[in-house]
Amino acid sequence: MTSTTSPVPPPPPAEITYSGQYSVNPLGEASFRSLCAQLPSVLAHITAMAWAIDRRAVLLLLGCQLATGTAAAVLLTATARAMAPVLGAGAVADRLREALPALALIATASAVARTSVAVARYAERRITPRLTTATDTALVEAVCRVEAAAYAGEGFSDRQEAAEMGVTRTQVMIMDAQRFLSALIKLVTAGIVVSVLHPLMLPLLLLAVAPAGIGAVLTARVDYEIHYANIADRNIRGMTRWWATTPKYGDEVRANGMTDYLLYWYRALSERVDRRTVAAAPRTLRIALLSSLAGGAFLAATWGALAWLAVTGQIAPAIAATAVVAVQTTLAALSQLVIEGAAVFHTSLYLGDMQAFFDDAAARAPQRGRSAVTAPVEEIRLDEVVYRYPGKDRPAVDGVSLTLRRGEILAIVGVNGSGKSTLTRLLTGIYLADKGHVTWNGTDLADADPATVWNCTGLVPQIFAQWPLRARENVTLGQPRSHDDHEVWDAVDAVGMREAIEELPAGLDTLLAREIFGGSELSGGQWQRLACSRALYRRPPLLILDEPTSQMDPHGEHAIFERIKAISADRITIVVTHRLENTKIADHIVVMEQGRLTERGTYDDLVHAGGTFANLLRLSRER
Ligand SMILES: Nc1ncnc2c1ncn2[C@@H]1O[C@H](COP(=O)(O)OP(=O)(O)OP(=O)(O)O)[C@@H](O)[C@H]1O
């Protein structure tokens, strides 16, 4: 059979832009002068960052710059001193003997310069990896520590992506700054020597290099503009890449015939990014050509002036020869200065984004009270609680009042999107209520230190992480209570996973990551059992299970609910579920509709009430 339908071309990826209040490109406003004026503060900022990492290496680096500069000055003055006898009259041997001290000085200065370059490289290598690690870790920590509500805030992930670039730039930042400083010192010393030879030479040289400097900064500005325009697409492309290439999602990608589309989308996003970059190429070419033209003209004038001074006898041949060396040195230093200055300036743009993200993340860090919540948690109350996600018209939770007491099991049911998971986030203090209060033992969560609250909670979320760690850490995850595995096995038994874990090649020591050599993979239901055992291992005063058995076989589901019931006396337990039969274990059931609690009662009450619960139960039985 042949297909008669012609293939429909896939739709292009959505045009997503880095938008909203953060869409203003900071470069759009800045003038060339103000950008250059930023350099000292950027250098100070980079030095402060490096200083915090390794003071001795920073001092070593600065010492090396001084040594390089001094060596350059000595080299030039010694060259001038050697030129007179070398170019003078008399026997060659006599002239060389006369020049010998100056030549020895030249050799020593060269050795010092080369040694200090090598030592500076060593110092830079001591700082850079640790600086990158420090900023990278700070970025991860900043993201982990913000109020969870910030994730839904405008442009948060785009600004995070922009900040990642700042972290990447730290890999070259110290080297750029060091080369900039070394060029500056060389320039000052060589410039002094050139000025001493003739006062006209330095201004001419500055003019020769200034166009290249302006060109380099303008090019950096164009590069940053492109980077800025591409942030959103790069962000989406990164996520697409992750979902498309992570083996865990490989089945879904293949069996849904998504490969071609994903590849098409990935390519389309990349091409869009490339198009913006390529479109800027003529601008950068124009900048390069114009700056080279202007620079070349001024350089020709410099050499012309030197020739004129020598020909008209205004400077001696020996001085003229030294001037050639000095001009070359100054020129090289100036070129290095503008190139590295542009690099430092370029880096400063990304560091600015990184710093802005850190400042923003700090502003979004939990600013709650310091009251400590301690176990046992006897009562949790919600009083007219309202929560609305940023950008949404309707609250996800709308005026909910509820009291939970130790020893009770509460079941929350309702259709998709009715606000159940949001309610659990409010109960655990992951989100703070916009209006109303959530109190634990009388303490308002807005006044409580969140760490003390989360010491008392255990959560099995709908979408749980499958950590690429050993089986043991997948149960304990950062909270080992004892040095033997007794309690780990207790938690494993509670979810019926002993047999499965014992069958793994190294038992609890088995790495649960298929893609890494030596790792083993679990089934979906087994992963979910482990997520449950992780929450149970904590023995939390508040246990929340959001669809905890959605991937489990009936046997596993039954065992988990039996266990939840068996351990419920010591804690408050909340179960969110669409399998209404499971709510039989609950002391109370609440039904959510559009963020509100519309029904509440026991299983028997609600079955006979003829409302939403009874309706949903009937539908599930009719299937
Ligand atoms: N991170 C978020 N950002 C913005 N809106 C959200 C976010 N999470 C949920 N919502 C919205 O809040 C409302 C309630 O969502 P919630 O996840 O609490 O529902 P639910 O009852 O748990 O649904 P389900 O049964 O599908 O798990 C929905 O309209 C949803 O679109």
From TrEMBL:
Its main location: membrane. One of its GO terms (molecular function) is ATP binding. It comes from Streptomyces pratens. SMART domains: AAA. It is found in: Cell membrane. Residues 380-619 form the ABC transporter domain. SUPFAM superfamilies: ABC transporter transmembrane region (SSF90123), P-loop containing nucleoside triphosphate hydrolases (SSF52540). Gene3D superfamilies: ABC transporter type 1, transmembrane domain, P-loop containing nucleotide triphosphate hydrolases. This is ATP-binding cassette domain-containing protein. It is a multi-pass membrane protein. The chain crosses the membrane at residues 57-79, 99-120, 180-198, 204-224, 285-309.
